[in-house]
Amino acid sequence: MNHLKVIIIGAGIGGLTAGIALKQAGYEVEIYDRVATLRPVGAGISLWSNGVKVLNRLGLGAEIAAIGGEMNAMTYRSKTGELLNQIDLMPLIDRVGQRPYPVARRDLQTMLVAAFPGEVHLDHKCIDFEEYETGVTAIFENGHRTSGDLIIAADGIRSQFRKQILDEPVEPKYAGYINWNGLVPADEQLAPKNTWSIYVGEHKRASLMPVGDSRCYFFLDVPLPPDNCATPDSYRAELKEHFRGWDEPVQQLIDRLNPAETARIAIHDMGPIDRYVKGRVALLGDAAHGTCPDLGQGGCQALEDAWVLSNYLIATNISVPDALKRYESERKERANAVVAKARQRAEQIHGRDPDVTQAWYQQLKNEPPEDVTSAIAKTILGGPLR
């Protein structure tokens, strides 16, 4: 289709990447977000090779390499520091053809905003849309209206559009754990250089992975009832209690983190759902498949969505709705499987069935490293850019 006007709702990873891809295709693109200031949710993201390949394909390979961390190995340790498994990631990188790049979310969003050749319209909350035979109009709370050939709803796990696409509400589900995350200066006392260090025990997890600018992205997971009543001034005491007796690097991490810059998130996922598209409107990213972060694939799946959607719009010429249905068919199979697998992984790690988690701890001790990298490679190579 030669010339299209695309309206994108949501200026997160998926919306911005879709905007970049569609502008490169020569389409007119408008991006809107309800927030007045772009502030990414969460401090970091483990961008695995399938997501990085999309950015490479869009000409952003040097930019992502500059802000990403060099991650060459993974180590699993018990809560007291016993080494359970050490995994060299170089065979994985050789197999899939691209290294992963853990990255600070703010750095990634800043990179994508800079790469989008147009304005991102902030403080525009989309409240409705009207579809007609030849196009669609987005309607905003502030009275603004804009019309185009299609709308991409990249408005997150609490999407305003999903109910209209599905004709029923589908709400996010609590995954069973609270996640504290942020950034700290890299230090060998916390974790070896270029290594993703993970401590596990008591159905909890403490993790550090390298990101750009000599920093580490950390997260600490604890299975708890969902609540949002804690405030930053209580985070350190809360974490000290939850991780009492854990190894010294975990204690140092809790001492060094900045509570004011630490996110405390009740982890939810959403789906799998059986429809991503209705007419000229398509869900993208977390709006279609909100994913537990336990596979590190949430952002990657949004990047894959953006790539696949832009390709169908470019490569097929029956109609916009036809291209969107083809996008839906391909992405539903791929992303829904990732949602289910990530939920299963979250339950395994966080003690939904304590026997299953205990068996996983035992498995970590005995599992050949190549089994771990093969499982990661299988997920990566399921994407559109193999």
Automatic annotation (TrEMBL):
Catalyzed reactions: urate + NADH + O2 + H(+) = 5-hydroxyisourate + NAD(+) + H2O
Sorted UniProt keywords: FAD, Flavoprotein, Monooxygenase, NAD, Oxidoreductase, Purine metabolism
InterPro entries the UniProt entry points to: FAD-bd, FAD-dep_Monooxygenase_BioMet, FAD/NAD-bd_sf, HpxO
Coiled coil: none
Pfam family, one: FAD_binding_3
UniProt cofactor(s): FAD
Pathway: Purine metabolism; urate degradation
Highest taxon listed in the record's lineage: Bacteria
Keyword Flavoprotein: yes
Family: Belongs to the FAD-dependent urate hydroxylase family.
Name listed for the protein in its UniProt record: FAD-dependent urate hydroxylase
Organism: Chamaesiphon minutus (strain ATCC 27169 / PCC 6605)
